[in-house]
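Why do we bother with a discrete structure alphabet at all? Because it lets us treat a fold like text: something you can write down, compare, and reason about line by line. To make this less abstract, here is a complete entry for Cytochrome c oxidase subunit 2. Read it the way you would read a sentence in a foreign language you are learning: slowly, and without expecting to understand everything at once.
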Amino acid sequence: MSTWSNLGLQDSASPLMEQLTFFHDHALLILVMITVMVGYLMIMLFYNSYTNRFLLHGQTIEVIWTILPAIILLFIAFPSLRLLYLLDEINEPSITLKSIGHQWYWSYEYSDFLNVEFDSYMIPTNELPVDGFRLLDVDNRVVLPINSQIRILVTAADVIHSWTVPALGVKVDGTPGRLNQTNFLMNRPGLFYGQCSEICGANHSFMPIVIESVPSNYFIKWISNNLNS
């Protein structure tokens, strides 16, 4: 979870988020190199007093400054395309989770298990426990096992919502009448917080997401208790 002192991205909790972080650093390095080079050339223009009265054209330099940006763009485009295909690939999921956006809360259904469904509301500030996070904690967390391929299906019941958990590298729009899907794998236990990132009405800020990542045996115990209740 981000805190006030975080200037960069959150620590990743999935392989996809690791790849997104690597691509972010790669693109940022290229941007810094371009900014430094262009800044140096612009500063040098102020101090350069040489002129060439006979300069009519410079085909060589024009070829260089046309081809060089194209090559730099390829260095950004190829990793970006690879990442887009990785994000879109579904690898034989172990569990399917369905998330339905409402104004202004989330409903969840574990499609592989009978009658495991619940609503997840933000805990109001006056009911928040001492160790809770204001505007981020919910009454019913989504419990999922680590090191398992999770497929999530996202839709909405009223307006457009967006199911977003930054630590997992997941952002899926929930559109009424459509079913969007993506997948992720959590490689460490913990609590991962997210929010709706589509402006969906007056209480858009008050529909957080909390994923509780647990070992498989704890998840089986949790799902058994929900099936029995």
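What the structure line is telling us, in plain words: The chain has two domains: 15-88, 95-228. The radius of gyration is 24 Å.
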